[in-house]
Design a protein that fits this description.
This protein has helices at about 1-15, 20-50. The chain has 2 helices and no strands. Helices cover about 90% and strands about 0% of the residues.
């Protein structure tokens, strides 16, 4: 499973190198926002369970 994750990361990093700067930054901001929302939802879910 780790090998698959590393291969996917390499593929995405290679694709990102060919994107224009503003497109890359917009995609990075969207992913960061999604991760923040996911983390907040998980944290809120754990506090409600305990």
């Amino acid at each position: 499973m780790l090998l698959v994750a590393l291969l996917a990361l390499g593929l995405l990093a290679g694709a990102a190198a060919h994107l224009p700067g503003p497109v890359f930054l917009a995609a990075a901001a969207a992913i960061a926002g999604w991760l923040l929302l996911f983390g907040a939802r998980e944290r809120l879910g754990r506090t409600r369970r305990h």
